[in-house]
Amino acid sequence: MSTANKVALVVGAQGVIGRNLVEHLAALGDWDIVGLSRRGGAAAGRIRHIAVDLLDRDDCRAKLSELRQVTHIFYAAYQDRPTWAELVPPNLAMLGNVVEAVEPAAVGLRHISLMQGYKVYGAHLGPFKTPARETDAGHMPPEFNVDQQDFLEQRRRGKAWSWSAIRPSVVGGFALGNPMNLAIVIAVYASMSKALGLPLRFPGKPGAYDKLLEMTDAGLLAKATVWAAIDPRCANQAFNINNGDLFRWSEMWPKIARWFDLEVAPPLPMSLDVVMADKEPLWQSMIETHDLQPTPYRDVSSWGFGDFVFSWDYDLFADGSKARRFGFHEYVETEAMFMNIFADLRRRRIIP
Ligand SMILES: NC(=O)c1ccc[n+]([C@@H]2O[C@H](COP(=O)([O-])OP(=O)(O)OC[C@H]3O[C@@H](n4cnc5c(N)ncnc54)[C@H](OP(=O)(O)O)[C@@H]3O)[C@@H](O)[C@H]2O)c1
């Protein structure tokens, strides 16, 4: 590791958010980067990876208390669970285990960035107030993002470091083997529709087709996350981060169909988790026919997350103007974001 004075610890470095954050930090050129995940990864340039189980406090202590040079912790790890209540204990424990292992050793620690989401506003529960603002009142627990922020706020008392909380909408970016990856859901569903000679049908709830929603590009999110971590005005603040435009599936879906060279047929509500469960043989045959990377079906099957997003028969967006008022002015056109991710998946030979 070089003597750079900015050392980032990216927690959850193989996630759809963490991967893109590592890439962005590396491109900035003045960061040393340590990535944490269970699977680890190959070192490259100023990036190194540590394979650690964040649920295991002893493993964290053994592997992370040597990280004395860390100046910024970017927390974007996630453990999926079937209910909102069950999400709390593992996700709180992972954050606690990292901070308790690293913070006492890293004497130059300046900032802890926490990746949250619109669950803070109750977006997962039903029609919530839109646009959601950072100043909105809280809602009835359990909600792990809120508990994580409380943990950081309490831990910071009397310390030299500050925190920031970043709240993206649904995130679009490249990753494999992740429970929440909408772009992969759409890309694989469309590719399979094509392989079966079917048109592209929106599989969500009837009322979800024409509601307003927004996305957050993973690259844009990475830029905002680093900005909030180093701009002193952002200390101990939360920020909604979104692409800056709104869309409805009724308008986006035909454009996605066109990209995949598919006809659009009227929506038909169905659970992707159910109807795609028997499609592993089809996936294998597509890999052979199109000479694709041999990606295991489970690594491209976040169907449950697709069902979740396509069930939102209410508007889902937040006000992103606080970040702009504080000085972050980047935006991404959501249609272009989707098409760029699909093109990237094709370039990597994940989809035909
Ligand atoms: N994805 C979205 O659309 C979205 C939208 C809004 C908010 N968010 C929020 O952003 C945060 C990150 O989400 P994400 O979608 O980027 O998550 P993700 O893709 O599932 O990534 C999670 C990361 O955590 C690591 N991890 C999980 N369990 C671990 C353990 N026990 N020990 C070590 N590493 C572990 C995973 O790597 P290994 O599997 O190799 O361990 C992976 O690197 C979450 O709080 C989520 O709620 C996500």
Task: Describe what you observe in this structure.
With 352 residues, the chain is of the alpha/beta class. It folds into 2 domains: 6-170 and 216-241, Rossmann fold, CATH 3.40.50.720; 176-214 and 246-316 and 331-347, no CATH class. It contains 12 helices and 11 strands. The strands form 3 sheets. It has a 7-stranded parallel sheet, sandwiched between helices. Strand 4, helix 3 and strand 5 (111-115) form a beta-alpha-beta unit. Helix 1 (16-28) packs across helix 6, helix 2 (57-64) packs parallel to helix 3 and helix 3 packs parallel to helix 4 (144-156). It is globular. The model has no long low-confidence stretch (mean pLDDT 97). NADP nicotinamide-adenine-dinucleotide phosphate binds next to helix 1, strand 2 and strand 7.
Shape estimate = globular
The CATH homologous superfamily of the largest domain is called NAD(P)-binding Rossmann-like Domain
Rounded to an integer in angstroms, the radius of gyration calculated over CA atoms is: 20 Å
- Percent range for helical residues? 25-40%
Largest sheet: 7 strands, parallel
- Classified by CATH, the class of the largest domain is Alpha Beta
Helix-strand sequence? EHEEHEHEHEEHEEHEHEHHHHH
Strand order of the largest sheet: 3-2-1-4-5-6-10
Number of domains: 2
CATH architecture of the largest domain: 3-Layer(aba) Sandwich
Question: Which oligomerization state do the chains in this entry correspond to?
Answer: single chain
Distinct bound molecules: NADP nicotinamide-adenine-dinucleotide phosphate
Structural class: alpha/beta
Q: Please work out how many helical segments DSSP would assign.
A: 12
Q: What would the average pLDDT be, to the nearest integer?
A: 97
Strand content: 5-15%
- Give the beta-strand count: 11
The third-level CATH topology of the largest domain is Rossmann fold
What are the low-pLDDT stretches, counting only 5+ consecutive residues below 50? none
